[in-house]
Amino acid sequence: MTTLYYAPGTCATGIHILLEEIGKPYDLKKVDFAAQAQYQPDYVAVNPKSKVPTLVRDDGSTLTEFPAIAVWLALTNPDKKLLSTDPEKLARTLETIDYIVSTLHMQAWTRFWRTVRYSSIEDEHPKIKAQGREMAEKGLALLDKQLAGKDWLMGDFTIADCALYFFEFWVAEWGKWPMPANVAAHYARMNKRPSVQNMLKMQGLAQAA
Ligand SMILES: N[C@@H](CCC(=O)N[C@@H](CS)C(=O)NCC(=O)O)C(=O)O
């Protein structure tokens, strides 16, 4: 059976939401970050990158990296219409996801939240955190414009909305930063979807959002 390896509240929430949207049976395996389980041999054997999300598929093969997993889930479940196959719409959806994952997650948020990975000198941390927040604010402003007059990033609900959700969750619940109006409305809209509510309950985050 398809198995998602996740840690609560991480970027794996976006893939968990997609699995709930698709509605087929799957297993959920928690990787205990507090115990550094991602670096232990059992998990390294599953994903040598020591990251979540990891999707182990029905045939036993493993897929990593949020965009790859999201695209694969969308294309293998075409009836759910989670990704348009029109070349322009598909490219625009990937453009949005790549910005969220490569820039907002990997560059902005990690500077703010995992500051020690950028410098072991504590005096430098406020500057690195401020850089991360500045990058995040810029991205949120761009996404706010993209959402103007729309419920969902691409017009229809797609895998891009699930990518934006994990970033919104961090900003709202962990960063406690205000979000621009259209992004805040998108986050509230996402939190009303049964798939998101199920994910929050299953990950023990129901109080958070
Ligand atoms: N590029 C990867 C990034 C995955 C990633 O950084 N996941 C974080 C959680 S949000 C993680 O597993 N961190 C564990 C660690 O760095 O020890 C993706 O998009 O899937």
Reported for the largest beta sheet, the result is: 4 strands, mixed
What does the oligomeric state look like here? single chain
Described by the principal axes of the CA atoms, the overall outline is: globular
Low-pLDDT residue intervals, each spanning 5 or more residues: none
Number of helices: 8
Give the termini separation. Answer: 29 Å
Count all strands and give the number.
4
CATH topology of the largest domain: Glutathione S-transferase Yfyf (Class Pi), Chain A, domain 2
Query: What is the total domain count?
Result: 2
Sheet-strand content, in percent, reads 5-15%
- Radius of gyration equals 17 Å
What is the CATH C-level name of the largest domain? Mainly Alpha
Into which percent range does the helicity of residues fall? 55-70%
Mean pLDDT: 97
Helix/strand-derived category reads: alpha+beta
Can you list the ligands bound to this structure?
Answer: glutathione
Strand order of the largest sheet: 2-1-3-4
Helix and strand sequence: EHEHEEHHHHHH
Features:
single chain; 209 residues; alpha+beta; Glutaredoxin; Glutathione S-transferase Yfyf (Class Pi), Chain A, domain 2; 2 domains; 4-stranded mixed sheet; 4 strands; binds glutathione
Annotate the secondary structure layout:
Blueprint: E1 3-6, H1 12-22, E2 27-30, H2 41-46, E3 54-56, E4 62-64, H3 66-75, H4 87-113, H5 125-147, H6 159-175, H7 181-192, H8 194-202
Parallel strand pairs: 1-2
Antiparallel strand pairs: 1-3, 3-4
This protein binds glutathione (GSH).
